[in-house]
Specification:
This protein is mainly α and 164 residues long. It contains 4 helices and 2 strands. Strands 1-2 form a two-stranded antiparallel ribbon. The N terminus is likely disordered.
Length: 164
């Protein structure tokens, strides 16, 4: 089976690999009462070959960085992501809407709203529940050539969009 390569270069990529992070407010790191547990977080981080939690990092700090960095990066790379297939075709129309959907899900799963952080991304789904559009409260211009996000001038996506 032939493997399909990702686009040659994402905007600003330095050639290094991406690293998933396990923050203090990850549901897997909470104690049985729902409290933040730094020991449990560091244990889980060590299992996946990550350094311990950065000194002083709070869940609110992590959520703020998640929203600012990821929302901006998605918008910067929209022209590279929009034409690529979603890894879950029944969940999202393309790679851009898939990643925006996952950003929205991460925000909610990490309970960032309760930490005073505003969700920057909104998603529109079609009748089948497939993410078909993503809107951002803080628009960022793409740095790759192409038409950009068709919803770039909308701060909130319509409740539903697209066809089946």
């Amino acid at each position: 089976m032939e493997r399909r390569a990702c686009p040659a270069a994402w905007a600003g990529r330095d050639g290094g690999g991406a690293e998933a992070l396990v923050p203090l407010n990850d549901p897997a790191t909470l104690d049985r009462f729902g409290n933040y547990d730094a020991v449990k977080a560091d244990t889980l981080r060590s299992i996946v070959d990550m350094a311990p939690l950065p000194a002083g990092q709070s869940p609110g700090d992590y959520c703020t960085e998640l929203e600012q960095a990821q929302g901006s990066r998605l918008q910067q790379d929209v022209n590279l992501l929009f034409g690529e297939a979603s890894p879950q075709p029944h969940a999202a129309e393309n790679l851009f809407t898939f990643l925006a959907m996952r950003l929205d899900q991460s925000f909610n799963k990490l309970d960032c709203g309760s930490l005073g952080v505003a969700n920057d991304v909104s998603i529109s789904v079609n009748g089948a529940g497939e993410a078909v559009a993503a809107c951002f409260a803080n628009p960022v211009a793409p740095i790759t050539t192409g038409p950009g996000n068709p919803m770039a001038n909308k701060r909130t996506c319509p409740a539903t969009a697209g066809g089946s």
